[in-house]
Amino acid sequence: MGRAIRHAEIEDEEKTAREPGRAVLVAVDLQVSDRDRVERSLDELADLAKTNGFVVADRIIQKMDKIDQRTFVGSGKLREIAQRAEDIEADYLLFDGELSPAQTRGISKETTLKICDRVSVILSIFADRARTDEGKIQVELAHWRYRLTQLSGQGAALSRLGGGIGTRGPGETMLEQDRRVIRKRMRVLRNELKRVENRRERSRALRDRRHMVTAAIVGYTNAGKSTLLNKLCGETLDTGDQLFMTLDPTARRLEISEGVSLILIDTVGFIRDLPQFLSQAFRATFEEASSADVILLVADMSDPDAAAHIDVVHRQLNELGAGSLPVFYVLNKMDNVRPSAYHDVMMTLRNDKSDQIFPLSARTGEGLDRLLSGLARFVESTFVWYRAIIPYREAGLVAHARAFGIVQEERYESEGVVLAGKIRRNEVGPLKPWIQL
Length: 437
What we know:
Number of strands: 13
CATH superfamily of the largest domain: P-loop containing nucleotide triphosphate hydrolases
CATH architecture of the largest domain: 3-Layer(aba) Sandwich
Number of domains: 4
Mean pLDDT: 81
Radius of gyration: 27 Å
Shape: elongated
CATH topology of the largest domain: Rossmann fold
Order of helices and strands: HEHEHEHEHHHHEHEEHHEHEHEHEHEE
Low-confidence stretches: 1-11, 14-18, 153-171, 239-244
CATH class of the largest domain: Alpha Beta
């Protein structure tokens, strides 16, 4: 047997996680006053489950002072839930949280139903949606990080297969082999990911050298980010009313008007309680946002949790070091707006300027003109107008002016090259000695 962890095993696990089946959703309510939050979290879990091919057969919430460390909901309640699942011919128990190895073992002892948790469902969706080499590597790396956490604490149980005092039982040896194989594979994946990231970094550096203004489209998953990019740029990126439609960042050039353009970058959707190992695996992708000039934060105004979703995105942008960037709030799906959600969002944004807030519908196009005007103003604000006489000994500055701006006048006079136009504000320095006031 040698190694216990094999690629066939991974494929079987992922296939099992994606097999369509009837599922009972299970959540714990730790605070009576927070019941609405638990219900909304279950709504989101139901969306994740449906995206992954499950049919949601029932949903059960158990009030508890704290989550049971062995069975998540307590042994008695678990047996009751399992019986309910069998009565309605469900195949899975799907828990709204991340099960520990001890909880997985404890639940398995009480029921023969298949077990999934929120994390495994998200992982399976990510595996289905990854299209590029980078996305596939990130998903596999996240998978192994998750498997490594699931191996924690299993040594004692496995070591009961044999061994004595002062020796290592075969179970413990197998556990160590599993960990060693996983860590080796993770090192290989990290190296592969680094090479892919370096290619993307070179592409980003090229944009920086040309000083293209970049706008990162960010937001909670299923807020309509890809639909917005499609509408603005005339693209046909995959969209749909499903979670995590986009895993791989996509950059497109948007021509706003003559001489005014920027790069739009569609990014991975955020979600509350995103597992740490997934955040780590996709960190370089998320960091596309931190290298942008402006953030387009898209919120789904048909979702009752829109304001809370904005808070989630803000927190994660802060963690990425992008919290100080200028933000345009794109209040999307206004054609299907929920008035209470709009009110909550406007209360959340009450300290932001009105010219940073853009209610619109990416689907119908209503309100896009105002967003385009706002983007045009932002791009223009990154440039300064100038008129300069460049001495011929500094003629290389003409190329600099062309590379980082728009030259509208270029004449060769006896005293030097007369230049006039606009240039990126942070590139005007070399021209300053020759600018005419």
